[in-house]
C-alpha cells in the first residue's frame, strides 16, 4: 500500500517541485500558462473525454450529483462556524467549497487509478468549475450575469462533448487521439503551475490558512461519506468522490478574489497553505482508499 501511495504522489510532488524550483530562479509567466491551459488544453481534454463513445456518461450521473452536493454542502456545513468565528463568508467559504479538481485532482486520479479514472475525474472537474463560475461568482457579487458561463471555453467544450456523446456520433479515431494528446499536456502543466504558485505562500495569515487547510478536506469528507452509500457509488466512482472531497482549495479562488477585490491576500493564504496541508491529507485518504476500496 505504501508503494502504491508513493507511486501516485511522487510524480505529483516531483512535477510540482520542478515548478517551484524553476520559479525560484526564473520568473515564468504563470498567468499565461494558466490561460493557455484553461482556454486550450483543458477544453480539448474535456471535449475528448466526453465525446469518446467509450465513456457512457449516463453512468456518471450519480457521481456528478454527489460532487455538486459535496461542493454546496461544504459551504452550508461551514456557514455557522464561519459566522461564529466572525470570519468574512465571502473570503473564507469559496476556497472551502471550490477545490483543486483541475491542477491536482485530474493528475492525482490518473496517476493513482490509471487512464480508466479520467472520465470520472473530468466529470467532477466540470461540476466544480460550473458551480464555481455560477454559484461562486454569485456569492461574491449577486449581480454577476450568468450568461458569462457561455463565454468560457471549458463550458463550450463540455456542451459540445456532451452533444457528441449523447447523439451517438462516432468521431474519427485520429481526431480523438490528437485531442487527447493535446489535452494531456494540461495534466503536467497544471501541476507545474501549482508548484510555481507555492512560492507565493504568505504566512502572515497562517492561522486562517491553517484553519482552512483542516476544514476544507474535513467538510468535504463529512458530506461525501453518506453520499457514497445513498447514491450506491462503487469502484472508481466511489474512490473518485473520496479523493475529490479531500482536495485542497483551487488556485482559481485567488484569481477570482483578486478580480473582485475580496481580500485576495487572505484568500491566497487559504489556497496555498491549504495545498501545502494536502501533503498530509492526500496520503492519508489515498491510504484508506487503497486499503478499503470504495
TrEMBL record:
Cellular component GO terms held in the UniProt record: membrane
Record's bilayer topology term: Multi-pass membrane protein
Transmembrane segments: 6-25, 32-51, 63-85, 152-175, 181-199, 211-230, 236-256, 268-292
GO BP annotations, alphabetical order: transmembrane transport
Domain of life (superkingdom): Bacteria
Broad class of where this protein is predominantly found: membrane
Stated name of the protein: Transporter
Keywords in alphabetical order: Cell membrane, Membrane, Transmembrane, Transmembrane helix, Transport
Intracellular or extracellular location(s): Membrane
Species: Halomonas salipaludis
Amino acid at each position: 500500500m505504501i508503494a502504491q501511495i508513493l507511486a501516485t504522489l511522487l510524480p505529483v510532488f516531483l512535477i510540482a517541485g520542478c515548478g517551484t524550483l524553476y520559479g525560484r530562479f526564473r520568473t515564468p509567466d504563470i498567468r499565461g500558462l494558466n490561460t493557455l491551459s484553461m482556454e486550450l488544453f483543458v477544453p480539448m481534454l474535456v471535449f475528448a473525454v466526453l465525446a469518446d463513445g467509450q465513456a457512457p456518461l449516463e453512468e456518471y450521473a450519480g457521481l456528478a450529483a454527489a460532487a455538486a452536493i459535496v461542493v454546496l454542502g461544504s459551504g452550508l456545513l461551514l456557514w455557522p462556524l464561519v459566522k461564529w468565528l466572525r470570519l468574512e463568508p465571502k473570503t473564507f467559504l469559496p476556497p472551502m467549497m471550490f477545490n483543486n479538481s483541475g491542477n491536482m485532482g485530474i493528475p492525482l486520479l490518473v496517476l493513482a487509478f490509471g487512464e480508466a479514472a479520467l472520465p470520472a475525474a473530468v466529470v467532477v472537474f466540470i461540476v466544480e468549475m460550473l458551480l464555481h463560475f455560477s454559484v461562486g461568482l454569485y456569492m461574491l457579487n449577486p449581480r454577476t450575469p450568468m450568461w458569462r458561463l457561455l463565454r468560457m471555453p471549458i463550458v463550450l467544450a463540455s456542451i459540445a462533448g456532451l452533444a457528441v456523446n449523447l447523439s451517438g456520433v462516432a468521431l474519427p479515431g485520429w481526431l480523438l487521439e490528437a485531442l487527447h494528446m493535446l489535452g494531456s499536456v494540461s495534466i503536467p502543466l497544471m501541476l507545474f503551475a501549482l508548484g510555481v504558485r507555492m512560492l507565493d505562500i504568505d504566512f502572515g495569515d497562517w492561522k486562517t490558512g491553517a484553519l482552512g487547510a483542516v476544514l476544507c478536506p474535513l467538510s468535504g469528507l463529512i458530506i461525501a461519506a453518506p453520499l457514497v452509500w445513498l447514491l450506491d457509488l462503487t469502484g472508481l466512482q466511489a474512490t473518485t468522490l473520496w479523493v475529490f472531497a479531500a482536495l485542497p482549495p483551487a488556485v482559481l479562488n485567488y484569481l477570482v478574489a483578486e478580480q473582485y477585490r475580496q481580500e485576495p491576500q487572505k484568500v491566497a493564504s487559504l489556497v496555498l497553505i491549504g495545498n501545502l496541508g494536502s501533503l498530509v491529507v492526500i496520503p492519508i485518504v489515498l491510504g484508506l482508499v487503497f486499503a478499503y476500496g470504495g
